[in-house]
Specification:
The complex is a heterodimer of chains A (254) and B (129).
Chain A: H1 2-24, H2 33-58, H3 65-70, H4 92-113, H5 119-147, H6 151-169, H7 178-183, H8 190-207, H9 235-242, H10 244-248
Chain B: E1 30-37, E2 45-52, H1 55-66, E3 74-79, H2 111-127
Antiparallel strand pairs in B: 1-2, 1-3
Classes of the chains: A mainly alpha (254), B alpha+beta (129).
Chain lengths: 254, 129
């Protein structure tokens, strides 16, 4: 059963690890100083959350957070492809939309995990929600404002939503052995969480006059597999960059 | 939340009402002055200023600019333009023209000794009662 637990925790942790890294790529490039600092701070929070999730496994005698983060085979990662996507043209509309879709999902996930029968996870979720409340506020308020501002802002957000929505949809891809996790009372079914996520984001998107359409099963081929160890085409360069320093001296103490 | 106290206009994160104010193209964001309340009931202290498109966004951005390292229980933001201040060039209005040291606390430094001295002076009078 510990293998099943590891799948669950890595799915949560790996999302945090890579979204933290992708957000952090904006340091020094944010649209204004104040927002640059706020977004960098959110990035730090997410990376910290990844560490806290890995630690649950470490406490069970599994690898350390550093080993999980920096010394794993690509196929052993469980992240959704949404968080591996590069910042492409460094369009802040894209960054905010990913932040919005992701943090809405986090809210829904953590809210469910608070009631998890696996106590270390429930306790951690309660703690992480403290920071997540701010992340969600930051994301939501930006989307609400920009969605109703200029035509350009609206256009860029809509383009970002079109591109990101199927990826975000797969944040709720069914995990391997998910039925065992549900039976143990660790998590509700991913499909159920996806419905709660839609309920959370749709009124805000609607208010901002932003539209999405639910992807059909046969359209999802290119976006799925993250939870099953299939990596997006962007993973290799991302991971090479992330591990550049740790690989330069694998024995170093940080 | 309504109150007769004009300072009380609290933002409830889940229920913020978003004022629909649109900025003109290339309009500069205004600046807000930020105050941090470090413990419940203590005075909010001015810590700096920042740019924001409106007051709610100012609160959101202020949290990471000014409350990420030290303790904070509440943040205040005030549009800089709402503040009326005196011109430092006219600082002389704060300088006394005559000796006003009696207003300063050291005027009370030796109060205890003075009381004791006064009591000593009273003693011979009391002994005749």
């Amino acid at each position: 059963m510990i293998e099943v637990l590891e799948i669950l925790i890595l799915s949560l942790a790996d999302d945090e690890l890579f979204i933290g890294h992708r957000h952090a790529e904006w340091i020094g490039l944010g649209p204004i100083l104040e927002e640059d600092i706020a977004f960098a701070s959110i990035a730090q929070d997410e990376t910290g959350h990844a560490q806290a999730y890995y630690q649950i496994l470490t406490d069970l005698g599994l690898p350390t957070p550093d080993e999980y983060a920096f010394k794993r085979e690509a196929s052993a990662f469980r992240s959704a492809h949404l968080v591996e996507l590069p910042n492409f043209e460094y369009d802040y509309g894209m960054a905010l939309m990913r932040h919005f879709l992701y943090d809405a999902a986090e809210q829904v996930r953590l809210d469910a995990l608070r009631k998890s029968a696996y106590e270390p996870l429930a306790g951690l979720a309660e703690r992480l929600l403290r920071e997540e409340k701010y992340h969600w506020l930051h994301a939501r308020v930006w989307i609400q404002r920009l969605g109703r501002s200029t035509e350009e802002a609206h256009h860029r957000l809509q383009a970002a939503l079109d591109q990101l929505f199927p990826y975000a949809w797969m944040l709720f891809e069914e995990m391997p052995h998910e039925e065992k996790m549900i039976e143990a009372g660790w998590v509700p079914p991913s499909a159920e969480l996806r419905m709660r996520w839609l309920e959370k984001i749709s009124p805000i998107l609607m208010e901002a006059n932003l539209a999405y359409s639910e992807p059909k099963a046969d359209e999802l081929q290119a976006f799925q597999g993250g939870r099953h160890g299939i990596r997006s085409p962007y993973f290799d360069s991302l991971y090479a960059e992330m591990t550049e320093v740790s690989a330069s001296d694998p024995e170093a103490e940080w | 939340m309504s109150s007769l106290d004009p300072r009380i206009r609290r933002a409830e994160p889940e229920l913020w009402e978003i004022p629909l104010r649109s900025l003109e193209p290339l309009e500069h964001w205004q600046t807000y002055e930020v105050f941090v309340m470090r413990t419940r009931g203590s005075q909010a202290q001015h810590v700096g200023s920042l740019h924001a498109p409106d007051a709610e966004m100012a609160l959101i951005l202020a949290k990471e600019q000014f409350a990420r390292r030290s303790q904070c229980v509440a943040l205040w933001v005030v549009p800089t333009e709402a503040i009326l201040w005196t011109n430092p060039e006219e600082e002389e209005i704060f300088l006394p023209a005559t000796d006003k040291s009696y207003r300063e606390p050291q005027g009370y430094l030796h109060t205890r000794e003075r009381i004791e001295r006064f009591k000593d002076r009273l003693k011979p009078l009391q002994s005749y009662d």
